[in-house]
Design a protein that fits this description.
286 residues, mainly beta, Jelly Rolls, 8-stranded antiparallel β-sheet, 7-stranded antiparallel β-sheet, 15 strands, disordered N terminus
Length: 286
């Protein structure tokens, strides 16, 4: 798989920026005391220097350098919540391993192992490779979120990628131009089935809008699945920010389901601006 490589010399810059802005590890990515601006998009080691060819790229994480998710909101309950491990298919390759247990203490009022990204723009591209392991991700008849676009204080995310009974689907708001957080009218759009023991590549292109100019485009392994036009967020709240990992709200308050552990692997996470394209975001699936 093609890789973006960055020289180790960037690490001193990272350390300097850490001392300048302080610890940005935990907390809400939209907290007023944390910078939400274009500068925040280049604080990671792989985003500090770019060429004209990759200027479309707002954020990249491929776990090949130090300090994964530096500058982002790391919402982890324990040491097992996130680690960098060897790729189960390509040993030398490094990937991000997320693990959530039903006994984990709640983080930000929920049972989650997630990362919140600070980039907030009306039009963005998002992509990641995901691996459902043979062991550690058994079928469950209650849903969990594996990625979401969340409006601050806006209630349930207007758009989320969820898994339930081994079905992967987009849960999207159908009346985003309504008012108030109680306007919860959603439609589920099937994306595919969980396929364990193999890498899959998702690419999303969103124009976040409560109006008719809203757009959601989704590709899986290079195949276009949906082109959804129209409102896709609530109008009385700000633009959504992106989160990914595992969030299983059914485990809140010590509740139990058929499973007690969820493990997911992610790699090659990219956020692109409006100059991105499917060709630029869709790495070859492993």
């Amino acid at each position: 798989m093609a890789r973006f490589n960055i020289k180790k010399a960037i690490i001193p810059l990272q350390l300097f920026l850490t001392s300048l802005f302080g610890s940005l590890g935990n907390g809400d990515p939209r907290n007023s005391d944390l910078p939400i601006c274009s500068m925040c998009n280049v604080l990671g080691t792989k985003n500090a220097f770019q060429t004209p060819e990759d200027s479309y790229r707002v954020y990249l994480e491929n776990f090949e350098e130090e300090a994964p998710f530096f500058s982002q909101s790391r919402q982890f309950a324990d040491l097992h919540s996130f680690n960098v491990v060897a790729d189960p298919d390509l040993g030398p390759n490094k990937v991000g391993r997320f693990e959530l247990r039903d006994s984990d203490p709640q983080v930000k009022r929920g049972t989650r192992a997630e990362v919140g990204f600070r980039t907030v723009e009306k039009e963005l591209w998002y992509a990641y490779s995901i691996y459902f392991p043979v062991e550690g991700y058994e079928s469950d008849n209650t849903p969990e979120i594996i990625s979401q676009w969340h409006q601050l204080r806006g209630g349930s995310p207007p758009n989320a990628i969820q898994v339930e009974n081994d079905e992967i689907y987009l849960r999207s708001i159908c009346k985003g131009n309504g008012s108030g957080i109680d306007d919860h009218l959603f439609t589920n759009y099937t994306l595919g089935k969980v396929e364990r023991g193999k890498w899959q590549r998702f690419v999303f292109h969103l124009i976040h809008s409560p109006g008719d100019d809203g757009l959601i485009e989704i590709w899986l392994n290079g195949e276009n699945i949906y082109n959804l036009n129209g409102p896709n967020m609530r109008k009385e709240f700000g633009l959504p920010y992106f989160k990914m990992g595992i969030y299983k709200w059914r485990w809140n308050d010590d509740s139990k389901t058929l499973t007690n552990r969820r493990i997911l692997l992610f790699d090659d996470i990219i956020i692109g601006n409006k100059e991105a394209s499917l060709e630029k975001m869709a790495f070859v699936v492993k």
